[in-house]
Amino acid sequence: MKNEGLSVFYRIRWRLTWLLLHVAGPATLPDAQDPRRLMERQRAAKVAAARQAREQRSVSK
Q1: Which residues span the domain enclosing 41?
Q2: In this structure, is residue 3 part of a structural domain?
Q3: For the chain, which terminus, N or C, has the lower number of CB atoms within 10 Å?
Q4: What is the SS3 assignment for 27?
Q5: 37 part of a folded domain
Q6: How confident is the model at residue 1 (pLDDT cuts 50, 70, 90)?
């Protein structure tokens, strides 16, 4: 699930920030410098960490 481990507040704030960057952010930048791509990578890392933590909890039971 792509929202695993993310609170409702985080998801709303993330979406608003992403939309603001889309409308009023910088012009097209390379992926390494694009703030929207950075946000997407950070979000994917949070979801992966939550998924890994859930798997570790289920293994330890």
Answers
A1: 8-60
A2: no
A3: C
A4: coil
A5: yes
A6: low
Task: Give dist(CA 48, CA 8) in Å, integer.
Answer: 17
Residue 34 belongs to some domain of the structure: yes
CB–CB of 4/52 below 8 Å?
Answer: no
pTM for the whole thing? Answer: 0.80
Residue 29, token pair as written in the block: 């930048």
Report if residue 18 sits inside a domain.
yes
Tens of pLDDT, residue by residue over 3-47, are 777 889 999 999 999 999 999 888 888 989 999 999 999 999 999
Residue 31 phi, psi dihedral angles, 5° rounding: -55, -35
CA distance 14 to 8: 10
